[in-house]
Specification:
Belongs to the peptidase S66 family. Keywords: Carboxypeptidase, Hydrolase, Protease, Serine protease. With 362 residues, the protein is an alpha/beta fold. The chain has 2 domains: 172 residues, Glucose Oxidase, domain 1, CATH 3.50.30.60; 141 residues, Murein tetrapeptidase LD-carboxypeptidase, N-terminal domain (Rossmann fold). Helix content is 24%, strand content 19%. Strand 13 and strand 14 form a beta hairpin. The chain is globular, with a radius of gyration of 19 Å. The two termini are 36 Å apart.
């Protein structure tokens, strides 16, 4: 995942090199090694036992007239992009409020830690607010996530939407309240990346109680990542960098029996290898029911070395569980929205991820 000092996510600034947050945290080479050839597909379909969701709390579906609040728990959004995102939300009949420090600048953060956590907690605990939308990711959520007050959310759940750096919030709200949240576009909207299909997918996810089916897109860079089979479990995860850098912290979910979803941007292949190897060494990958791979964008390695797809095949194909790549989920163009924390099924051979609704009827 990109660091704000490198480039604002998701689009790079022309002519400017990005600095990976992961590369700033750790230096060195990635651990590699697998008997599987890059590009090979597992020959025997793998069938993982389904796991049921226990204790998940789904928020009520949003409806026209509901108050929703936009917060900036990480970096500061662009006012022009924000105007477009607000226009979309208001077009659905929602009453959009901005938290006090949405546009504040404090270094590369949208305000001090105290200001950002105050805005977030106010939105999560105001009984009149039915939805909380992140303005932007960038960086900064991990600095405040341990101070989130989720004590009222099981009794009064609400829609929470965001991706990238917001992965930490998703994990924390799942651990503390069992809240089903939504991994989808943020209010810092760009039509060139997230067009009408992305907007409609977000609307359906938070305003209807229809199941969500995401289909493998052959044009995605990860489309060839495939281990045939079916698996079910709660869908958990997010940005791989945030999953990795939260391990052992209070926003890291229990992935036992889950479908592990991940995506990332601006990470070199060896960094992706390092993070997946970390998950393997900790035993996490041996306990998941299946793996869902979203968009891996702007992953540029050295010539004559593995690219990101080769790394994914090397690190995932020997797990003994179904693996489905090529889903338009993450930092790439055409991003769609999925609930996190609810029950889902992957059929890798059919190329589908089917997720039960993340909201309940009003």
């Amino acid at each position: 995942m990109s660091h704000p000092r490198g480039r604002p996510d998701p689009a790079p600034e022309p002519g400017r090199a990005a600095i990976s947050r992961r590369s700033m945290l750790r230096a060195g080479t990635a651990v590699t090694g697998s008997a599987l050839l890059a590009g090979a597909v597992a020959e025997t379909p793998v069938h993982a036992a389904p796991r049921t969701v226990a204790g998940a709390v789904r928020p009520p579906a949003l409806r026209p007239g509901d108050r929703v609040r936009v917060v900036s728990p990480g970096s500061t959004p662009d006012p022009v992009n924000m105007a477009r995102g607000i226009e979309i939300l208001r077009g659905w009949g929602l009453q959009v409020e901005l938290a006090p420090h949405v546009y504040t600048k404090y270094g590369y953060l949208a305000g001090t830690d105290a200001e950002r956590i105050a805005d977030l907690n106010a939105a999560l605990n105001d009984p009149g607010v039915r939805g909380v939308f992140a303005a932007r990711g960038g960086y900064g959520t991990q600095r405040i996530v341990d101070r989130i007050d989720a004590s009222k959310l099981r009794r009064d759940p609400r829609v929470v939407v965001g991706f990238s750096d917001i992965t930490s919030i998703h994990g924390k709200l799942w651990r503390d309240a069992g809240l089903v949240t939504f991994y989808g576009p943020m209010v810092n909207w760009t039509d060139s990346r997230t067009g009408p299909e992305s907007a409609e997918a977000l609307r359906r996810a938070v305003m209807t109680t229809n199941p969500i089916t995401i289909t493998r897109d052959p044009a995605e860079t990860t489309a060839s990542v495939l281990v045939p089979g079916r698996a079910s479990g709660r869908l958990l995860g997010g940005c791989l960098t945030l999953i990795s850098t939260s391990l052992g912290a209070k926003d890291s979910p229990d992935f036992d029996g889950a479908l592990l979803f991940f995506e990332d941007t601006n990470e070199v292949p060896s960094s992706i290898d390092m993070m997946l190897t970390e998950l393997r060494r900790l035993g996490i990958m041996s306990r998941v029911a299946g793996v869902v791979v979203g968009q891996i964008t702007d992953s540029v390695g050295e010539p004559d070395e593995w690219d990101a797809v080769a790394v994914l095949k090397d690190r995932l194909y020997d797990l003994g569980v179904p693996v489905l790549g090529g889903l338009p989920l993450g930092h790439g163009n055409g991003q769609l929205t999925i609930p996190l924390g609810t029950h889902a099924t992957i059929d890798a051979q059919a190329g589908t991820l089917t997720v039960t609704p993340g909201v309940r009827p009003r």
